[in-house]
Give the backbone structure.
Amino acid sequence: MTKKYDYPTKGNLVVPMTNDYLFKALLQENEHVLKGLLCSLLHMEENEIKSTEITNSIKLGESFTDKTFLLDVMIMLNNSKSINLEMQVINFDNWTERSLAYLGREFSKILKGANYEDAIPVHQIGILNFTLFKDYPLFYSTYMMQELKNHNIYSDKFALSVLDLTQIDKATEEDKSYRLDHWARLFSAKTWEDLHSLAKENPIMAEATSTINRLTEDELVREACFRRDEQLAHEANMLKKIERQAEELIKDKAIIAEKDNTIAEKDSALAQNKATIANLEALVSELQKQLN
């Protein structure tokens, strides 16, 4: 018998699924959903996942600031692989460097007190609500260090992946076979109708939807999500302000450069006029000598 889940089926979501606080809360509260997401992202079968442990869990609803904890999700998979998941909505144009910093820091941390050959693999996965490389839009991509000529992988212990929520239409058949398009639709959902449609297609989506409803019905969790949304809105506004200031600075520089060019042209014309006058004065002087 198919399990039924109790949740609304109409109206806007109380909290958008791109809210990284809700994202972390969902994965903390429902290990089955966490395993399902990992299976899709890592192309694994469910029976291959023996254990998962979120190593930086938070106390849901507790007062927080950006300085007290980060909203990425650190996972120890099967006691043999470290996974870093992060939901990122705003494009600060620094994701490549930021993801490398996460990856390098985690790999260095794992190496402390251990032999190099015993280091476990680390994998950083960003779920982004923007396209990382505009000229090469992909739905799901994975990057590893490799030799440029023969593409031999330098090490399989260091990997980066990106799931682009804005490029679902570019999902490959392989992506769809692992239901990555379903997860992207879940995280992109704006209404209960969106989630209800997914729930009918995929049982794990129904379970995730039920957990989302339970979490957002909790006043403390809901308030924490709202505070996080306010932070994200503030960050987005600050980014827009910086972009406007940068555009104004470029315009000001262009105006100054144009004025400098005008001044330079006037200086050049003045120099030419002075030279012409000097030549005329010399000519007049020469004529006067001849007349005398």
Q: What stands out?
A: The chain has a mean pLDDT of 89. Helices lie at 20-29, 31-42, 95-111, 173-177, 180-188, 192-201, 203-217, 219-291. The radius of gyration is 30 Å. The longest strand covers residues 81-88.
